[in-house]
Design brief:
Blueprint: H1 2-54, H2 56-61, H3 64-72, E1 80-86, E2 92-95, E3 115-121, E4 124-135, E5 138-148, H4 153-197, H5 209-212, H6 217-323, H7 325-345, H8 352-383, E6 391-393, H9 395-404, H10 407-412, E7 416-421, E8 428-430, H11 432-449, E9 455-465, E10 473-482, H12 515-525, E11 529-534, E12 540-547
Parallel strand pairs: 7-9
Antiparallel strand pairs: 1-2, 1-5, 3-4, 4-5, 6-8, 9-10, 10-12, 11-12
Length: 562
Protein backbone atom coordinates (compact mmCIF):
# COMPACT_ATOMS: atom_id res chain seq x y z
CA UNK A 1 0.00 0.00 0.00
CA UNK A 2 2.87 2.36 0.78
CA UNK A 3 4.32 1.83 -2.69
CA UNK A 4 1.00 2.84 -4.31
CA UNK A 5 0.81 6.07 -2.29
CA UNK A 6 4.31 7.03 -3.35
CA UNK A 7 3.51 6.41 -7.00
CA UNK A 8 0.34 8.53 -6.78
CA UNK A 9 2.23 11.39 -5.19
CA UNK A 10 4.92 11.24 -7.85
CA UNK A 11 2.34 11.24 -10.66
CA UNK A 12 0.48 14.14 -9.09
CA UNK A 13 3.68 16.16 -8.81
CA UNK A 14 4.47 15.42 -12.44
CA UNK A 15 1.04 16.67 -13.45
CA UNK A 16 1.47 19.87 -11.46
CA UNK A 17 4.85 20.43 -13.03
CA UNK A 18 3.31 19.93 -16.47
CA UNK A 19 0.75 22.63 -15.72
CA UNK A 20 3.46 24.97 -14.48
CA UNK A 21 5.54 24.36 -17.59
CA UNK A 22 2.52 25.04 -19.79
CA UNK A 23 1.88 28.37 -18.09
CA UNK A 24 5.54 29.25 -18.41
CA UNK A 25 5.40 28.39 -22.11
CA UNK A 26 2.46 30.78 -22.54
CA UNK A 27 4.39 33.57 -20.84
CA UNK A 28 7.43 32.89 -23.00
CA UNK A 29 5.27 32.88 -26.14
CA UNK A 30 3.89 36.26 -25.19
CA UNK A 31 7.37 37.60 -24.51
CA UNK A 32 8.58 36.18 -27.84
CA UNK A 33 5.80 38.08 -29.61
CA UNK A 34 7.03 41.28 -28.01
CA UNK A 35 10.60 40.54 -29.06
CA UNK A 36 9.45 39.85 -32.64
CA UNK A 37 7.60 43.16 -32.65
CA UNK A 38 10.74 44.95 -31.41
CA UNK A 39 12.83 43.22 -34.10
CA UNK A 40 10.37 44.37 -36.80
CA UNK A 41 10.57 47.92 -35.45
CA UNK A 42 14.38 47.85 -35.55
CA UNK A 43 14.53 46.30 -39.03
CA UNK A 44 11.97 48.77 -40.42
CA UNK A 45 13.97 51.67 -39.01
CA UNK A 46 17.16 50.29 -40.59
CA UNK A 47 15.39 49.88 -43.98
CA UNK A 48 14.01 53.45 -43.80
CA UNK A 49 17.43 54.86 -42.93
CA UNK A 50 19.08 52.90 -45.74
CA UNK A 51 16.41 54.09 -48.23
CA UNK A 52 16.78 57.70 -47.07
CA UNK A 53 20.58 57.75 -47.27
CA UNK A 54 20.78 55.70 -50.47
CA UNK A 55 18.32 57.90 -52.38
CA UNK A 56 20.15 61.22 -51.84
CA UNK A 57 22.08 61.09 -55.14
CA UNK A 58 19.01 59.99 -57.09
CA UNK A 59 16.91 62.78 -55.48
CA UNK A 60 19.51 65.40 -56.41
CA UNK A 61 19.76 64.14 -60.02
CA UNK A 62 16.00 63.32 -60.18
CA UNK A 63 16.70 59.80 -61.33
CA UNK A 64 13.20 58.37 -60.78
CA UNK A 65 14.07 54.93 -62.15
CA UNK A 66 16.82 54.60 -59.54
CA UNK A 67 14.38 55.80 -56.86
CA UNK A 68 11.88 53.13 -57.93
CA UNK A 69 14.54 50.40 -57.67
CA UNK A 70 15.63 51.62 -54.23
CA UNK A 71 12.02 51.61 -52.96
CA UNK A 72 11.42 48.04 -54.16
CA UNK A 73 14.63 46.84 -52.52
CA UNK A 74 13.53 48.35 -49.17
CA UNK A 75 10.98 45.53 -48.53
CA UNK A 76 12.90 42.54 -47.10
CA UNK A 77 9.86 40.18 -46.77
CA UNK A 78 6.10 39.81 -47.27
CA UNK A 79 5.48 41.03 -43.72
CA UNK A 80 6.19 44.55 -44.97
CA UNK A 81 3.25 46.50 -46.50
CA UNK A 82 4.94 49.19 -48.57
CA UNK A 83 7.88 51.59 -48.96
CA UNK A 84 7.80 55.10 -50.46
CA UNK A 85 9.60 58.43 -50.83
CA UNK A 86 7.42 61.49 -50.07
CA UNK A 87 8.30 65.13 -50.66
CA UNK A 88 8.05 67.59 -47.78
CA UNK A 89 4.76 68.96 -49.18
CA UNK A 90 3.20 65.45 -49.01
CA UNK A 91 3.48 64.47 -52.70
CA UNK A 92 4.48 60.82 -53.28
CA UNK A 93 7.61 60.68 -55.50
CA UNK A 94 7.69 56.91 -55.75
CA UNK A 95 5.84 54.02 -54.06
CA UNK A 96 5.84 50.26 -54.19
CA UNK A 97 2.12 50.66 -55.04
CA UNK A 98 2.50 52.45 -58.39
CA UNK A 99 -1.08 53.73 -58.24
CA UNK A 100 -0.18 56.05 -55.38
CA UNK A 101 2.72 57.81 -57.19
CA UNK A 102 1.91 61.52 -57.51
CA UNK A 103 -0.79 61.49 -54.85
CA UNK A 104 -0.63 63.45 -51.62
CA UNK A 105 -0.55 62.09 -48.11
CA UNK A 106 -1.44 63.95 -44.90
CA UNK A 107 1.46 65.95 -43.48
CA UNK A 108 -0.17 67.11 -40.27
CA UNK A 109 1.75 64.61 -38.13
CA UNK A 110 5.26 65.56 -37.01
CA UNK A 111 7.99 64.16 -39.21
CA UNK A 112 11.17 63.17 -37.39
CA UNK A 113 13.88 60.58 -37.91
CA UNK A 114 12.99 57.20 -36.39
CA UNK A 115 9.34 58.04 -35.60
CA UNK A 116 6.71 55.20 -35.69
CA UNK A 117 3.06 55.71 -36.57
CA UNK A 118 0.06 53.36 -36.51
CA UNK A 119 -1.83 53.85 -39.80
CA UNK A 120 -4.07 51.82 -42.10
CA UNK A 121 -3.16 50.53 -45.50
CA UNK A 122 -5.87 48.83 -47.58
CA UNK A 123 -8.05 48.53 -44.45
CA UNK A 124 -5.28 46.67 -42.54
CA UNK A 125 -3.40 48.07 -39.54
CA UNK A 126 0.30 48.75 -40.27
CA UNK A 127 3.17 50.41 -38.43
CA UNK A 128 4.93 53.08 -40.47
CA UNK A 129 8.45 54.39 -39.77
CA UNK A 130 9.69 57.64 -41.28
CA UNK A 131 13.30 58.75 -41.87
CA UNK A 132 14.34 62.02 -43.56
CA UNK A 133 16.67 62.09 -46.59
CA UNK A 134 18.58 65.30 -45.96
CA UNK A 135 21.92 67.02 -46.39
CA UNK A 136 22.57 69.22 -43.40
CA UNK A 137 19.36 71.08 -42.57
CA UNK A 138 17.91 70.69 -46.04
CA UNK A 139 15.36 67.84 -46.35
CA UNK A 140 14.84 66.50 -49.88
CA UNK A 141 12.23 63.85 -49.04
CA UNK A 142 11.05 61.45 -46.33
CA UNK A 143 11.49 57.68 -46.57
CA UNK A 144 8.42 55.67 -45.38
CA UNK A 145 8.61 51.93 -44.60
CA UNK A 146 5.52 50.11 -43.17
CA UNK A 147 4.94 46.56 -41.89
CA UNK A 148 1.76 44.69 -40.92
CA UNK A 149 0.78 44.52 -37.26
CA UNK A 150 0.27 41.21 -35.45
CA UNK A 151 -3.14 39.65 -34.65
CA UNK A 152 -5.26 42.00 -32.46
CA UNK A 153 -4.77 41.67 -28.72
CA UNK A 154 -8.37 40.59 -28.03
CA UNK A 155 -8.10 37.61 -30.31
CA UNK A 156 -4.71 36.62 -28.80
CA UNK A 157 -6.19 36.78 -25.27
CA UNK A 158 -9.14 34.54 -26.28
CA UNK A 159 -6.72 32.05 -27.75
CA UNK A 160 -4.57 32.00 -24.62
CA UNK A 161 -7.63 31.52 -22.35
CA UNK A 162 -8.82 28.60 -24.46
CA UNK A 163 -5.34 27.04 -24.28
CA UNK A 164 -5.25 27.33 -20.49
CA UNK A 165 -8.67 25.68 -20.09
CA UNK A 166 -7.71 22.79 -22.34
CA UNK A 167 -4.47 22.20 -20.38
CA UNK A 168 -6.27 22.23 -17.02
CA UNK A 169 -8.94 19.77 -18.16
CA UNK A 170 -6.29 17.49 -19.70
CA UNK A 171 -4.25 17.57 -16.52
CA UNK A 172 -7.23 16.63 -14.30
CA UNK A 173 -8.20 13.80 -16.63
CA UNK A 174 -4.62 12.52 -16.64
CA UNK A 175 -4.44 12.54 -12.82
CA UNK A 176 -7.71 10.58 -12.53
CA UNK A 177 -6.62 8.03 -15.11
CA UNK A 178 -3.26 7.56 -13.38
CA UNK A 179 -4.93 6.91 -10.00
CA UNK A 180 -7.24 4.32 -11.55
CA UNK A 181 -4.43 2.54 -13.42
CA UNK A 182 -2.21 2.56 -10.32
CA UNK A 183 -4.59 0.31 -8.43
CA UNK A 184 -4.70 -2.12 -11.37
CA UNK A 185 -0.94 -2.24 -11.88
CA UNK A 186 0.49 -2.01 -8.39
CA UNK A 187 -1.23 -5.07 -6.87
CA UNK A 188 0.55 -7.69 -9.10
CA UNK A 189 3.73 -5.62 -8.98
CA UNK A 190 3.75 -5.73 -5.16
CA UNK A 191 3.19 -9.50 -5.25
CA UNK A 192 6.05 -9.84 -7.77
CA UNK A 193 8.30 -7.70 -5.57
CA UNK A 194 7.60 -9.78 -2.44
CA UNK A 195 8.39 -12.99 -4.35
CA UNK A 196 11.68 -11.65 -5.72
CA UNK A 197 12.75 -10.49 -2.23
CA UNK A 198 12.77 -14.16 -1.12
CA UNK A 199 15.04 -15.15 -4.02
CA UNK A 200 18.24 -17.19 -3.37
CA UNK A 201 20.77 -18.57 -5.86
CA UNK A 202 20.43 -22.10 -4.54
CA UNK A 203 16.57 -22.23 -4.60
CA UNK A 204 15.68 -19.90 -7.46
CA UNK A 205 12.21 -18.14 -7.82
CA UNK A 206 8.80 -19.87 -7.80
CA UNK A 207 5.80 -17.64 -8.68
CA UNK A 208 2.13 -18.33 -7.77
CA UNK A 209 -0.34 -19.40 -10.52
CA UNK A 210 -2.18 -16.09 -10.22
CA UNK A 211 0.92 -14.31 -11.49
CA UNK A 212 2.01 -16.90 -14.07
CA UNK A 213 -1.48 -17.14 -15.60
CA UNK A 214 -1.68 -13.44 -16.45
CA UNK A 215 -1.50 -12.68 -20.17
CA UNK A 216 -0.36 -9.07 -19.78
CA UNK A 217 3.07 -7.49 -19.29
CA UNK A 218 3.14 -8.46 -15.57
CA UNK A 219 2.73 -12.14 -16.45
CA UNK A 220 5.44 -11.89 -19.09
CA UNK A 221 7.69 -10.20 -16.55
CA UNK A 222 7.06 -13.02 -14.05
CA UNK A 223 7.95 -15.67 -16.65
CA UNK A 224 11.12 -13.76 -17.48
CA UNK A 225 12.11 -13.58 -13.81
CA UNK A 226 11.40 -17.32 -13.39
CA UNK A 227 13.63 -18.14 -16.38
CA UNK A 228 16.28 -15.71 -15.12
CA UNK A 229 16.30 -17.32 -11.67
CA UNK A 230 16.83 -20.76 -13.20
CA UNK A 231 19.74 -19.54 -15.28
CA UNK A 232 21.26 -17.65 -12.38
CA UNK A 233 21.09 -20.79 -10.19
CA UNK A 234 22.75 -22.88 -12.88
CA UNK A 235 25.38 -20.20 -13.54
CA UNK A 236 26.03 -19.89 -9.80
CA UNK A 237 26.85 -23.59 -9.54
CA UNK A 238 29.15 -23.42 -12.58
CA UNK A 239 30.86 -20.30 -11.26
CA UNK A 240 31.34 -21.86 -7.83
CA UNK A 241 32.94 -24.91 -9.42
CA UNK A 242 35.27 -22.76 -11.52
CA UNK A 243 36.00 -20.56 -8.51
CA UNK A 244 37.15 -23.63 -6.54
CA UNK A 245 39.35 -24.71 -9.43
CA UNK A 246 40.78 -21.21 -9.80
CA UNK A 247 41.49 -20.99 -6.08
CA UNK A 248 43.48 -24.23 -6.28
CA UNK A 249 45.46 -22.90 -9.23
CA UNK A 250 46.12 -19.67 -7.35
CA UNK A 251 47.51 -21.64 -4.40
CA UNK A 252 49.84 -23.61 -6.69
CA UNK A 253 50.92 -20.43 -8.48
CA UNK A 254 51.53 -18.73 -5.14
CA UNK A 255 53.88 -21.50 -4.09
CA UNK A 256 55.76 -21.20 -7.40
CA UNK A 257 56.00 -17.42 -6.99
CA UNK A 258 57.33 -17.81 -3.48
CA UNK A 259 60.05 -20.14 -4.80
CA UNK A 260 60.86 -17.66 -7.57
CA UNK A 261 60.94 -14.85 -5.03
CA UNK A 262 63.61 -16.68 -3.03
CA UNK A 263 65.60 -17.29 -6.21
CA UNK A 264 65.19 -13.64 -7.23
CA UNK A 265 66.44 -12.45 -3.85
CA UNK A 266 69.52 -14.66 -4.19
CA UNK A 267 70.11 -13.29 -7.71
CA UNK A 268 69.75 -9.72 -6.45
CA UNK A 269 72.38 -10.37 -3.79
CA UNK A 270 74.75 -11.76 -6.41
CA UNK A 271 74.04 -8.77 -8.66
CA UNK A 272 74.79 -6.40 -5.76
CA UNK A 273 78.13 -8.06 -5.17
CA UNK A 274 78.90 -7.91 -8.89
CA UNK A 275 78.06 -4.20 -8.98
CA UNK A 276 80.41 -3.58 -6.06
CA UNK A 277 83.22 -5.36 -7.93
CA UNK A 278 82.43 -3.37 -11.11
CA UNK A 279 82.52 -0.14 -9.12
CA UNK A 280 85.94 -1.05 -7.75
CA UNK A 281 87.22 -1.90 -11.24
CA UNK A 282 85.78 1.36 -12.57
CA UNK A 283 87.47 3.35 -9.83
CA UNK A 284 90.78 1.59 -10.52
CA UNK A 285 90.34 2.15 -14.27
CA UNK A 286 89.63 5.85 -13.74
CA UNK A 287 92.76 6.14 -11.64
CA UNK A 288 94.85 4.43 -14.34
CA UNK A 289 93.27 6.65 -17.02
CA UNK A 290 94.13 9.76 -15.00
CA UNK A 291 97.71 8.54 -14.53
CA UNK A 292 98.04 7.70 -18.23
CA UNK A 293 96.51 11.05 -19.20
CA UNK A 294 99.09 12.84 -17.03
CA UNK A 295 101.89 10.80 -18.63
CA UNK A 296 100.61 11.62 -22.14
CA UNK A 297 100.32 15.30 -21.26
CA UNK A 298 103.87 15.33 -19.97
CA UNK A 299 105.05 13.48 -23.08
CA UNK A 300 103.15 15.91 -25.32
CA UNK A 301 104.63 18.91 -23.50
CA UNK A 302 108.08 17.37 -23.88
CA UNK A 303 107.44 16.73 -27.58
CA UNK A 304 106.25 20.32 -28.09
CA UNK A 305 109.32 21.61 -26.28
CA UNK A 306 111.59 19.39 -28.39
CA UNK A 307 109.81 20.55 -31.54
CA UNK A 308 110.21 24.20 -30.55
CA UNK A 309 113.90 23.62 -29.82
CA UNK A 310 114.34 21.81 -33.15
CA UNK A 311 112.57 24.61 -35.03
CA UNK A 312 114.73 27.17 -33.21
CA UNK A 313 117.84 25.21 -34.07
CA UNK A 314 116.71 24.90 -37.71
CA UNK A 315 116.06 28.64 -37.92
CA UNK A 316 119.41 29.32 -36.29
CA UNK A 317 121.09 26.99 -38.79
CA UNK A 318 119.31 28.61 -41.73
CA UNK A 319 120.23 32.11 -40.54
CA UNK A 320 123.82 31.01 -39.99
CA UNK A 321 124.10 29.49 -43.47
CA UNK A 322 122.40 32.50 -45.03
CA UNK A 323 124.85 34.86 -43.28
CA UNK A 324 127.83 32.63 -44.10
CA UNK A 325 126.98 32.20 -47.81
CA UNK A 326 129.78 34.54 -48.91
CA UNK A 327 132.39 32.94 -46.61
CA UNK A 328 131.46 29.43 -47.83
CA UNK A 329 131.40 30.26 -51.55
CA UNK A 330 134.66 32.29 -51.54
CA UNK A 331 137.03 29.33 -50.79
CA UNK A 332 135.28 27.19 -53.44
CA UNK A 333 135.64 29.93 -56.03
CA UNK A 334 139.32 30.15 -55.11
CA UNK A 335 139.82 26.37 -55.51
CA UNK A 336 138.00 26.33 -58.88
CA UNK A 337 139.89 29.45 -60.03
CA UNK A 338 143.34 28.06 -59.18
CA UNK A 339 142.43 24.69 -60.77
CA UNK A 340 141.49 26.43 -64.04
CA UNK A 341 144.64 28.55 -63.85
CA UNK A 342 146.82 25.47 -63.24
CA UNK A 343 145.19 23.62 -66.15
CA UNK A 344 145.82 26.53 -68.50
CA UNK A 345 149.52 26.81 -67.47
CA UNK A 346 150.28 23.16 -68.25
CA UNK A 347 151.51 21.81 -71.57
CA UNK A 348 148.81 19.56 -73.10
CA UNK A 349 151.46 17.23 -74.56
CA UNK A 350 153.83 16.93 -71.62
CA UNK A 351 151.52 17.27 -68.58
CA UNK A 352 148.62 14.98 -69.59
CA UNK A 353 148.40 13.35 -66.16
CA UNK A 354 148.33 16.71 -64.33
CA UNK A 355 145.67 18.04 -66.69
CA UNK A 356 143.46 15.02 -65.92
CA UNK A 357 143.94 15.67 -62.20
CA UNK A 358 142.93 19.33 -62.59
CA UNK A 359 139.84 18.25 -64.61
CA UNK A 360 138.83 15.89 -61.75
CA UNK A 361 139.31 18.77 -59.34
CA UNK A 362 137.11 21.04 -61.51
CA UNK A 363 134.32 18.44 -61.88
CA UNK A 364 134.32 17.62 -58.17
CA UNK A 365 134.44 21.32 -57.33
CA UNK A 366 131.53 22.11 -59.66
CA UNK A 367 129.51 19.34 -58.08
CA UNK A 368 130.38 20.54 -54.59
CA UNK A 369 129.65 24.14 -55.63
CA UNK A 370 126.22 23.04 -56.96
CA UNK A 371 125.46 21.27 -53.69
CA UNK A 372 126.68 24.26 -51.69
CA UNK A 373 124.57 26.65 -53.76
CA UNK A 374 121.50 24.47 -53.15
CA UNK A 375 122.13 24.35 -49.41
CA UNK A 376 122.70 28.10 -49.22
CA UNK A 377 119.66 28.87 -51.39
CA UNK A 378 117.45 26.64 -49.20
CA UNK A 379 118.83 28.26 -46.05
CA UNK A 380 118.24 31.78 -47.36
CA UNK A 381 114.69 30.90 -48.41
CA UNK A 382 113.86 29.36 -45.05
CA UNK A 383 115.37 32.38 -43.29
CA UNK A 384 113.36 34.74 -45.53
CA UNK A 385 116.40 36.60 -46.87
CA UNK A 386 115.77 36.01 -50.57
CA UNK A 387 113.67 38.35 -52.66
CA UNK A 388 111.99 37.89 -56.03
CA UNK A 389 113.13 40.03 -58.92
CA UNK A 390 110.00 40.10 -61.03
CA UNK A 391 110.03 41.01 -64.69
CA UNK A 392 108.65 40.02 -68.07
CA UNK A 393 110.05 36.66 -69.21
CA UNK A 394 109.35 34.19 -72.01
CA UNK A 395 109.03 30.74 -70.43
CA UNK A 396 109.43 28.74 -73.72
CA UNK A 397 112.70 30.58 -74.50
CA UNK A 398 113.90 29.89 -70.95
CA UNK A 399 113.12 26.17 -71.38
CA UNK A 400 114.98 25.95 -74.72
CA UNK A 401 118.04 27.58 -73.15
CA UNK A 402 118.22 25.01 -70.34
CA UNK A 403 117.61 22.11 -72.77
CA UNK A 404 120.78 23.13 -74.61
CA UNK A 405 122.75 22.76 -71.38
CA UNK A 406 121.91 19.01 -71.23
CA UNK A 407 122.75 18.10 -74.85
CA UNK A 408 125.84 16.10 -73.86
CA UNK A 409 123.94 13.98 -71.28
CA UNK A 410 121.00 13.43 -73.65
CA UNK A 411 123.28 12.32 -76.47
CA UNK A 412 124.99 9.87 -74.12
CA UNK A 413 121.60 8.20 -73.36
CA UNK A 414 120.19 8.72 -76.88
CA UNK A 415 117.32 10.86 -75.56
CA UNK A 416 115.09 13.12 -77.65
CA UNK A 417 113.02 16.13 -76.53
CA UNK A 418 109.51 16.89 -77.80
CA UNK A 419 108.36 20.45 -76.91
CA UNK A 420 104.84 21.77 -77.40
CA UNK A 421 104.19 25.41 -76.54
CA UNK A 422 100.51 26.38 -76.98
CA UNK A 423 100.53 29.43 -74.69
CA UNK A 424 99.24 32.62 -76.35
CA UNK A 425 101.09 34.78 -73.79
CA UNK A 426 104.77 35.22 -74.69
CA UNK A 427 105.73 37.39 -71.71
CA UNK A 428 104.79 36.41 -68.15
CA UNK A 429 105.76 38.28 -64.96
CA UNK A 430 108.04 36.09 -62.82
CA UNK A 431 111.63 35.87 -61.48
CA UNK A 432 113.50 34.50 -64.49
CA UNK A 433 116.51 33.28 -62.51
CA UNK A 434 114.47 31.36 -59.91
CA UNK A 435 111.92 29.89 -62.35
CA UNK A 436 114.93 28.97 -64.50
CA UNK A 437 116.36 27.11 -61.49
CA UNK A 438 113.06 25.16 -61.22
CA UNK A 439 113.09 24.35 -64.95
CA UNK A 440 116.76 23.32 -64.69
CA UNK A 441 116.02 20.98 -61.75
CA UNK A 442 113.06 19.35 -63.51
CA UNK A 443 114.92 18.91 -66.85
CA UNK A 444 117.95 17.54 -65.01
CA UNK A 445 115.81 14.98 -63.15
CA UNK A 446 114.06 13.98 -66.39
CA UNK A 447 117.39 13.41 -68.16
CA UNK A 448 118.82 11.56 -65.15
CA UNK A 449 115.91 9.12 -64.68
CA UNK A 450 114.64 8.65 -68.28
CA UNK A 451 115.08 5.26 -69.91
CA UNK A 452 117.70 4.99 -72.66
CA UNK A 453 116.41 5.91 -76.15
CA UNK A 454 113.21 7.45 -74.76
CA UNK A 455 111.56 10.82 -75.36
CA UNK A 456 111.16 13.66 -72.89
CA UNK A 457 107.98 15.69 -73.53
CA UNK A 458 107.76 19.31 -72.38
CA UNK A 459 104.57 21.40 -72.68
CA UNK A 460 103.45 24.95 -71.84
CA UNK A 461 99.75 25.90 -71.99
CA UNK A 462 97.49 28.69 -70.72
CA UNK A 463 95.20 27.83 -67.82
CA UNK A 464 93.21 29.39 -64.95
CA UNK A 465 93.21 28.66 -61.23
CA UNK A 466 91.21 29.66 -58.15
CA UNK A 467 92.37 30.98 -54.79
CA UNK A 468 90.51 31.59 -51.55
CA UNK A 469 89.76 35.19 -52.63
CA UNK A 470 89.80 35.14 -56.45
CA UNK A 471 88.40 32.95 -59.22
CA UNK A 472 89.62 32.17 -62.77
CA UNK A 473 93.08 33.72 -62.40
CA UNK A 474 95.05 33.55 -65.73
CA UNK A 475 98.06 31.22 -65.32
CA UNK A 476 100.74 29.44 -67.30
CA UNK A 477 101.08 25.64 -66.90
CA UNK A 478 104.43 23.82 -67.37
CA UNK A 479 104.69 20.00 -67.60
CA UNK A 480 107.59 17.64 -68.27
CA UNK A 481 107.20 13.89 -68.89
CA UNK A 482 109.91 11.23 -68.74
CA UNK A 483 109.46 7.53 -69.51
CA UNK A 484 111.48 5.92 -66.77
CA UNK A 485 111.04 4.90 -63.17
CA UNK A 486 107.65 5.63 -61.56
CA UNK A 487 107.38 7.03 -58.02
CA UNK A 488 105.38 5.11 -55.39
CA UNK A 489 101.97 6.74 -54.83
CA UNK A 490 102.60 7.34 -51.12
CA UNK A 491 105.81 9.28 -51.98
CA UNK A 492 104.38 11.72 -54.55
CA UNK A 493 104.09 14.39 -51.82
CA UNK A 494 107.15 13.44 -49.74
CA UNK A 495 109.65 13.97 -52.59
CA UNK A 496 109.12 17.74 -52.26
CA UNK A 497 110.38 17.73 -48.64
CA UNK A 498 113.96 18.66 -47.67
CA UNK A 499 116.61 15.96 -48.23
CA UNK A 500 113.97 13.40 -49.37
CA UNK A 501 114.48 11.15 -52.40
CA UNK A 502 112.07 8.55 -53.73
CA UNK A 503 112.94 4.97 -52.85
CA UNK A 504 112.46 4.10 -56.51
CA UNK A 505 115.15 6.63 -57.65
CA UNK A 506 117.87 5.83 -55.10
CA UNK A 507 120.00 4.14 -57.75
CA UNK A 508 123.35 5.76 -57.00
CA UNK A 509 122.84 8.38 -59.71
CA UNK A 510 123.57 11.13 -57.21
CA UNK A 511 121.44 13.93 -55.76
CA UNK A 512 120.81 15.44 -52.35
CA UNK A 513 117.03 15.64 -52.31
CA UNK A 514 117.11 19.47 -52.30
CA UNK A 515 116.18 20.33 -55.90
CA UNK A 516 112.46 19.59 -55.61
CA UNK A 517 112.27 21.18 -52.16
CA UNK A 518 113.82 24.40 -53.48
CA UNK A 519 111.53 24.26 -56.53
CA UNK A 520 108.47 24.00 -54.31
CA UNK A 521 109.57 27.05 -52.27
CA UNK A 522 110.12 29.09 -55.45
CA UNK A 523 106.74 28.11 -56.96
CA UNK A 524 105.00 28.80 -53.63
CA UNK A 525 106.64 32.24 -53.53
CA UNK A 526 105.05 32.93 -56.94
CA UNK A 527 101.66 31.83 -55.43
CA UNK A 528 101.62 28.79 -57.70
CA UNK A 529 101.56 25.03 -57.25
CA UNK A 530 103.90 22.14 -58.12
CA UNK A 531 103.05 18.43 -58.09
CA UNK A 532 103.90 15.05 -59.62
CA UNK A 533 101.85 12.15 -60.98
CA UNK A 534 102.70 8.74 -62.36
CA UNK A 535 102.16 7.44 -65.88
CA UNK A 536 101.06 3.87 -66.64
CA UNK A 537 102.89 1.59 -66.88
CA UNK A 538 106.16 3.52 -66.28
CA UNK A 539 107.11 7.15 -66.15
CA UNK A 540 106.31 10.30 -64.23
CA UNK A 541 105.00 13.80 -65.04
CA UNK A 542 106.00 16.92 -63.10
CA UNK A 543 103.74 20.01 -63.28
CA UNK A 544 103.88 23.55 -62.02
CA UNK A 545 101.46 26.41 -62.50
CA UNK A 546 102.09 30.11 -61.75
CA UNK A 547 99.98 33.27 -62.32
CA UNK A 548 100.80 35.37 -65.37
CA UNK A 549 100.65 38.47 -63.19
CA UNK A 550 101.90 38.67 -59.56
CA UNK A 551 99.12 38.32 -56.96
CA UNK A 552 100.98 40.27 -54.23
CA UNK A 553 103.71 42.91 -54.21
CA UNK A 554 105.93 41.39 -51.51
CA UNK A 555 106.54 37.63 -51.60
CA UNK A 556 107.98 35.48 -48.79
CA UNK A 557 110.22 32.75 -50.19
CA UNK A 558 110.06 30.80 -46.91
CA UNK A 559 106.35 30.00 -47.57
CA UNK A 560 105.42 26.39 -48.25
CA UNK A 561 102.29 25.33 -50.14
CA UNK A 562 99.40 24.16 -47.97
Amino acid sequence: MKVGIRVRLVISLVALMTVALGLTAIVLINDADKRIEWFKHTQALSQAKTLAEGSLDALVTRDYEQLERLVKSALPSEEYAYASLVKTDGQVLTHTDLSLIGSFVPTSREIAAGKFYDVKYKDQPVVEVVYSSAIGDKIFANAHVAYYQNVPNEQREDTLNTLIIIMLVSTLAMIGGVIFLTDKIMQPVRHLTDTISNFSLEKGIKFSPAILNRKDEIGALALSFDDLSYRLSHSYKELKKKSDELEEKVKKRTRVLEEHSVELERTNNELYETQKELQQHRDNLQKRVDERTLELKQARDAAFEARDQAELANRTKSEFLANMSHELRTPMHAVLGFANLGKEKLDPEKDVQLIEMFEHILKSGDRLMHLLNNLLDLARMEAGYSELHLGENDLPSLIDMYIQGYQEEMQAKHLTVDTKYSSAENNTIFDGKMIGQVVDNLIGNAVKFSAVKSTIRIGVVDQTMDTATEKNIPCIHFSITNLGISIPEDELEQIFDNFIQSTATKTGAGGTGLGLSISRSIIAAHKGKIWAENLMPDGVVFHFIIPMQPLIKEIDLSAQPG
